[in-house]
């Protein structure tokens, strides 16, 4: 047996962390100025004078309809401010997330028809103008300034007051508690774009969408042209709330939260916005225990959803899991049980829920013994109550190796199959592998399709599929999906914002989300597209909270094809981190967990080796053998800092 001691040099290499702050997309202050001119039209001069890099110069728009489109370089949110030296005339501003909808005449859309009207300022005197409080814009990368008067207009300053994360100090928007860095830039960018997306969808609860278009659209769905929009509906209590999308809908949706909340926990730990959102749903629980499909004012439409009901139950468990606040759980427990009882009451004599509350994430065919709904139900039952009833439905896998949506169809959905694995409903390893191979076999150039929603790629459901691959150690497959779908397409495609994640698109890569009839309506900052952020921390960093807030934990890094990862985040108990390096013959791991906690470490052996020398600081190396899956386990480890080096034989 070789006996090795750690040398300072060996650990120094692992400690040499690349600073991660440079990846944070949140701004250092709330005053944002554009970084580039994207388009100019008509007679004008000095368009670049209003860029962030310039000072005290003036854009001059000479005539009616002269316009400049500015690029903020990333998706932003807020209210337009400008200073003019003109004392007459009028200016219009239009907004769009995607470059596809740049126009001096209209913004992209928040309604399911037409587009949104420009924000118009009549100039009565020189000086400072600001958008009214209810006319902030929830997300845009491009801002077009257009002269709407007959004569020349001069603008000598233009900025946007950033309104997302209203409860955080203006100089602390980059106040992350988590970080992720690896040798793969694509993964790093995806992690931080997920973090930023969840910040953009965290809003002042008095600035919810008034949904004023619903009347217009439902009374005449052929309405075209521009529609007015205003953000003046109070959707939750408190001073901040998590919503689904920054531009649209700006409402509380429990389904979206199921992806966003773990992402928030490992990045900003902004749990109060989650709590305010959940409270607003539980305030609307009905006497039978049913929770609403979405928060106020959408709940007024009376649409019911079995799956979103379950997601609202999962949300409470998730908040407790990360925050560990027992009094919060106590306060929700009676309502939680009533909600669980409502769900269990949907189970019929076959042992499966027969879904009649059929609204879901805009997939079709959510009814009967649906596999997605039943997998989520199984998962939810396992979360907290002793009401679990065993479901013998592994036999329903069809010839493709995938579950069918229900007994009367051959359609094999992405959502139900991903949930069947994620929930632990399928325990047979060869069947799990068969399901995930079959899902992977369907991946196209633009990502993982969801045939249960026609021609759609759903970043939401792909978040669950991704988690399923990671959960069963299909690490390289999961990383491939993140790189191809999230980085190469969802960030880098020129129609995207390169900073936040879109809600859905077609399998051919067109920015069309089939359930909607109006393409400009698609939200490009949707929390439900941020699945990789928490998955990278949980599986690649390997940091898993076992007990609430991490009182007990496990650190089980998945290597895939990576060589270097540095990940961490904090909960109410303190900071958890995992930093590792491998070159195929050595695996080094440094972990840090709060004092007073205990946990388990599953150290992967380098390069598929099964025997190695394990070195811990200040101890002689010992010869160790890997388990069947290539790991060496150390249990009952006390919280604190630990370093391990495994040198393969
Ligand atoms: C304004 O200019 C745009 C091009 O920037 C053009 O498409 C549009 O037709 C013009 N509108 C009017 C009313 O002239
Ligand atoms: C600007 O002035 C026009 C013409 O007087 C008027 O129709 C319009 O309502 C005004 N718009 C705003 C935002 O004040
Ligand atoms: C624009 O107006 C604001 C508010 O009055 C002022 O603080 C700012 O300095 C002005 N900008 C320029 C370039 O004068
Ligand atoms: C920074 O983040 C922490 C943890 O999320 C939060 O408690 C604190 O209020 C934030 N600080 C500011 C100034 O926003
Ligand atoms: C809808 O509005 C359009 C345009 O105003 C009109 O032509 C059409 O008749 C309306 N349809 C209905 C069903 O009211
Ligand atoms: C929101 O603004 C619109 C337009 O000004 C107004 O009609 C509506 O009453 C406002 N709603 C609330 C809740 O203030
Ligand atoms: C705010 O809290 C009060 C008291 O619990 C409740 O009645 C009200 O519905 C809440 N508002 C929202 C928008 O959830
Ligand atoms: C069964 O699944 C198919 C495919 O998703 C769907 O078309 C059908 O409506 C579903 N049945 C029910 C009762 O929802
Ligand atoms: C589900 O319940 C509905 C309404 O009671 C019923 O029509 C339908 O046949 C049931 N579906 C199954 C698969 O049992
Ligand atoms: C599930 O299947 C197992 C094995 O076939 C059987 O022992 C068990 O009774 C079944 N459970 C139910 C509820 O049908
Ligand atoms: C994945 O790896 C973990 C850690 O080694 C192990 O506990 C788990 O059983 C594995 N899952 C499968 C399906 O191999
Ligand atoms: C997206 O942003 C990154 C920096 O985060 C930059 O390196 C890359 O070139 C940008 N991609 C595109 C297509 O703009």
UniProtKB/TrEMBL annotation:
Residues 218-365 form the Alpha-L-rhamnosidase six-hairpin glycosidase domain. InterPro entries: 6-hairpin_glycosidase_sf (IPR008928), 6hp_glycosidase-like_sf (IPR012341), Bac_rhamnosid6H (IPR035396), Bac_rhamnosid_C (IPR035398). The keyword Signal applies. One of its GO terms (molecular function) is hydrolase activity, acting on glycosyl bonds. It holds the Pfam family Bac_rhamnosid6H. The keyword Signal applies. Residues 543-604 form the Alpha-L-rhamnosidase C-terminal domain. Keywords: Glycosidase, Hydrolase, Signal. Residues 1-17 form the signal peptide. GO terms for biological process: carbohydrate metabolic process. PANTHER family: ALPHA-L-RHAMNOSIDASE SIX-HAIRPIN GLYCOSIDASE DOMAIN-CONTAINING PROTEIN, C, PUTATIVE (AFU_ORTHOLOGUE AFUA_3G02880)-RELATED. This is Six-hairpin glycosidase. It comes from Dichomitus squalens.
């Amino acid at each position: 047996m070789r006996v090795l001691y750690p040398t300072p040099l060996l650990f120094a290499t692992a400690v040499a962390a690349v600073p991660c702050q440079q990846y944070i997309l949140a701004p250092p202050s709330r005053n944002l100025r554009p970084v580039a001119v994207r388009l100019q039209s008509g007679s004008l001069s000095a368009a670049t004078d209003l860029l962030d890099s310039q000072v005290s110069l003036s854009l001059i728009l000479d005539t009616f309809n002269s316009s400049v489109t500015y690029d903020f370089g990333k998706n932003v949110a807020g209210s337009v401010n400008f200073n003019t030296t003109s004392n007459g005339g009028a200016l219009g501003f239009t907004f769009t997330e995607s470059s596809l909808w740049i126009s001096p005449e209209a913004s992209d859309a928040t309604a399911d028809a037409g587009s949104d009207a420009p924000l118009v300022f009549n100039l009565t005197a020189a000086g400072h103008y600001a958008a009214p409080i209810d006319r902030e814009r929830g997300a845009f990368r491009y801002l077009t300034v257009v002269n709407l008067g007959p004569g020349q207009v001069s603008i000598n300053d233009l900025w946007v007051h950033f309104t997302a994360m209203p409860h955080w100090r203006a100089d602390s928007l980059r106040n992350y508690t988590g970080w992720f860095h690896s040798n793969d830039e694509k993964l790093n960018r995806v992690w931080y774009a997920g973090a930023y997306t969840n910040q953009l969808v965290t809003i002042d609860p008095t600035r919810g969408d008034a949904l004023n278009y619903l009347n217009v659209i439902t009374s005449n769905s052929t309405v075209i042209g521009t529609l007015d929009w205003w953000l003046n509906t109070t959707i939750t209590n408190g001073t901040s709330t998590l919503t689904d999308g920054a531009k649209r809908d700006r409402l509380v949706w429990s389904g979206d939260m199921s992806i966003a909340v773990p992402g928030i926990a490992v990045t900003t730990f902004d749990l109060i916005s989650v709590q305010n959102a959940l409270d607003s749903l539980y305030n609307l629980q009905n006497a039978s225990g049913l929770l609403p499909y979405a928060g106020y004012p959408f709940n007024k439409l009376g649409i019911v959803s079995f799956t979103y009901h379950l997601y609202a139950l999962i949300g409470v468990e998730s908040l407790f899991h990360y925050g560990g606040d027992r009094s919060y759980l106590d306060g929700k427990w009676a309502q939680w049980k009533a909600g669980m009882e409502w769900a269990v009451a949907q189970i019929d004599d076959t042992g499966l829920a027969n879904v009649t509350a059929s609204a879901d994430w805009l997939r079709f065919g959510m009814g009967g013994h649906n596999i997605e709904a039943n997998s989520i139900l199984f998962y939810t039952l396992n979360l907290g109550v002793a009401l679990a009833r065993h479901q013998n439905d592994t036999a329903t896998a069809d010839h493709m190796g995938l579950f069918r949506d229900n007994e009367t169809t051959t359609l094999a959905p992405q959502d139900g199959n991903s949930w069947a694995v994620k929930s632990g409903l399928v325990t047979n390893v060869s069947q799990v592998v068969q399901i995930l191979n079959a899902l992977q076999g369907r991946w196209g150039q633009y990502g993982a399709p969801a045939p249960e929603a026609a021609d759609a790629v759903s970043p939401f459901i792909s978040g669950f599929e991704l988690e399923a691959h990671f959960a069963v150690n299909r690490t390289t497959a999961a990383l491939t999906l993140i790189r191809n779908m999230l980085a190469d397409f969802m960030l880098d495609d020129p129609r995207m914002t390169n900073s936040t994640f879109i809600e859905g698109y077609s399998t051919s890569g067109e920015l069309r989300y089939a359930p909607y009839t109006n393409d400009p309506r698609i939200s490009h900052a949707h929390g439900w597209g941020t699945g990789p952020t928490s998955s990278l921390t949980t599986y690649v960093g390997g940091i898993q909270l076992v007990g609430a807030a991490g009182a007990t934990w496990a650190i089980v890094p998945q290597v895939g094809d990576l060589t270097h990862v540095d990940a961490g985040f904090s909960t109410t108990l303190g900071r958890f981190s995992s930093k590792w390096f491998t070159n195929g013959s050595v695996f080094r791991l440094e972990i840090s967990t709060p004092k007073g906690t205990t946990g388990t470490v599953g150290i992967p052996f380098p390069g598929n080796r099964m025997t190695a020398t394990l070195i811990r600081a200040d101890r002689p190396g010992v010869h160790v053998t890997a388990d069947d899956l290539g790991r060496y386990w150390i249990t009952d480890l006390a919280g604190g800092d630990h370093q391990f080096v495994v040198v393969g034989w």
